[in-house]
Every structure is written in structure tokens, then in C-alpha cells.
Design goal:
The structure is a single chain. By secondary structure, this protein is mostly helical. It has helices at residues 12-25, 28-38, 44-48, 54-69, 76-89, 97-107, 124-140, 150-164, 171-180, 185-202, 212-239, 246-277, 280-289. It has one domain (12-289). The radius of gyration is 19 Å and the shape is globular.
Length: 290
């Protein structure tokens, strides 16, 4: 929650994502913490002192790193927050060097070189489905940094569909289109990371959807359905010459997201199989090269 506010301008999407995780846990302690953080009553040092061992401190730092890099490379204020957090957790620069490098590379990856991004193959429905399965698989990975890769994959999907229809887009246009759908890519990464962090810090204490396989399933369905809907709405948008209204786009997004949730049980095994063979470093290299 502090990480989401570290840039000094918590967007409504980030706030909704945090609220959704708090609501999903149904835990009074987490709700009270959310209220205290929102009111500025808690500091990093206060929270760090509550973490009992090295693993909890590692989970907390990686979760904050994921959330901060979810919407792009960290700002100066966000880097200052991470430095404060490292000090409070007793972590040195060498302790977090590898995860920081990976997070920063993933954050800078979206459509970095437009010339290297290919147009999708002829069977667009199947292509969108496979991209949705891929982002769902990222949520199954135990690596908390995997959530950051969802944003570049989704932006690249929209870009690829635009190119198929003869549109030459820049990253800002792709992000604006995603925002028009009522989708905050940062918020979904915040929510996915927060679910993993809460599960990692509390294990089975909270129970319900944030524990074990259920927690994993929530994140996978969320990413799968969002990517599926994003791809299909982008196809309709470009196919109709970018003439759909915002209201039409949002209605389409809701419809396709609902459709995706009915499809997910049929592809859940594919999601888990892909997660079993997915390597974050290989995916990172793929995003670098297009």
C-alpha cells in the first residue's frame, strides 16, 4: 500500500486494486492497516519492524519492487521509497541487485523497439487466446516479479493487433487505448502482486482466496480474462476504423471479460502446463528483442 503511494500520486486504479485485495482477504487487521496507511499514520519503519524473519523481509521488498515498477520505470520518489525500505529491512544493495535489475528491465520492456514487434498470425482468435494463457501462466509462477511482465505483453498484443490493421502506434497511444477500456495496467499488476505478497507473508492465516491454490487461481483468472478482453476489444476497435465510442469500448470489454471467465476452466490445465515450462529470464529476453 505504501509502495502504491510512493510516487505521491496514487491513481484511482491503484487504489481500487489495493481496496480489492483488502476486501478479498476479509481480514479486519488488513482493513485497519489500509485505513492507517491511507491516513498517513504508518511509516515504512513501523511496518518493517513487524516482519519476523529474512524470508518475510524478502517477500515485502520484492512485492514493493513489483508494485513500483508495474506502471513503468521507478520515479525518483519511488526510488527514494525503495532506498528507505531497504534500510528499514536491513537489506544491502547487493542483496537486491539481481531482482532490481530484472524489475527495471521488465518495466522498460513494453514495445521498446516497434520495428521488432511482428504482426500477429492469421488466426487472430487463437493468437489472443494464447497470449491470455501466457499472462495467466505468469500469475502461477512463484516469482513475484513475474507480474511486471504482464503489462509489456498486453501492450505488445494491442500494438500487434493495431499493426495488423495498418496502424502505426506509439506506446502512449497503446496505453491510452487500454485506459479507455477502463483498464489500468498498473492497477492489475498492483492487485496481482499484492495477492502474492499477502499470501507470501501470511501463508494460510488469512485463508480463503489468498491462500495456496485459490490465491494462484484468482491471479491467473484475472490476468487471463483481462488480456483476452483487451485483445478482442482492440481487434474490434481497429477493425472498425477506431470509430467506437468510449462507452461502446467499455461495454465490449466487460462482455469479453465475462466470456473469458467462462472459457478459463477449459484452458486452466494449459495455463498450468505453460507455467511449468515458462522461464522469466527467457521471457525477458523475448521482450527485449521483440
Amino acid at each position: 500500500m505504501l509502495a502504491a503511494r510512493a510516487d505521491g500520486a496514487t491513481e484511482s486504479g491503484e487504489q481500487r486494486a489495493v481496496d480489492a485485495v483488502v476486501s478479498r482477504t476479509g481480514n479486519p487487521d488488513v482493513t485497519r492497516l489500509a485505513e492507517q496507511v491511507a491516513a498517513g499514520q504508518l511509516r515504512v519503519a513501523d511496518l518493517a519492524s513487524r516482519l519476523s524473519d529474512d524470508e518475510a523481509r524478502k517477500v515485502a521488498y520484492e512485492g514493493a519492487l513489483t508494485i513500483i515498477n508495474a506502471d513503468g520505470v521507478a520515479t525518483l520518489s519511488e526510488k527514494a521509497f525503495l532506498a528507505e525500505l531497504r534500510t528499514a529491512l536491513g537489506l544491502g544493495g547487493a542483496d537486491v541487485e539481481d531482482v532490481t535489475r530484472t524489475a527495471e528491465t521488465l518495466a522498460a520492456a513494453p514495445v521498446a523497439d516497434a520495428r521488432a514487434v511482428p504482426t500477429p498470425p492469421g488466426d487472430l482468435d487463437e493468437f489472443i487466446l494464447q497470449q491470455a494463457i501466457l499472462t495467466g501462466a505468469l500469475e502461477v509462477l512463484p516469482d513475484r516479479l513475474a507480474s511486471i511482465a504482464i503489462l509489456p505483453l498486453q501492450l505488445r498484443l494491442v500494438y500487434q493487433i493495431g499493426r495488423r490493421h495498418g496502424q502505426q502506434l506509439d506506446v502512449a497511444q497503446v496505453k491510452d487505448l487500454a485506459a479507455t477500456f477502463g483498464l489500468s495496467a498498473a492497477a492489475q499488476s498492483v492487485q496481482g502482486a499484492a495477492i502474492k505478497v499477502i499470501g507470501g507473508l501470511t501463508g494460510g492465516l488469512l485463508g480463503g482466496l489468498v491462500g495456496g491454490a485459490s490465491r494462484v487461481a484468482v491471479g491467473a483468472v484475472m490476468s487471463f480474462s483481462t488480456t483476452y478482453a483487451l485483445g478482442h476489444v482492440a481487434e474490434q476497435y481497429y477493425k472498425q476504423g477506431r470509430k467506437l465510442s468510449m462507452a461502446d469500448l467499455r461495454a465490449l470489454f466487460d462482455r469479453f471479460q465475462g466470456e473469458a471467465k467462462t472459457i478459463y476452466p477449459r484452458v486452466e490445465e494449459q495455463v498450468r502446463r505453460q507455467a511449468g515450462t515458462l522461464n522469466l529470464q527467457s521471457l525477458l529476453q523475448q521482450l527485449r528483442t521483440g
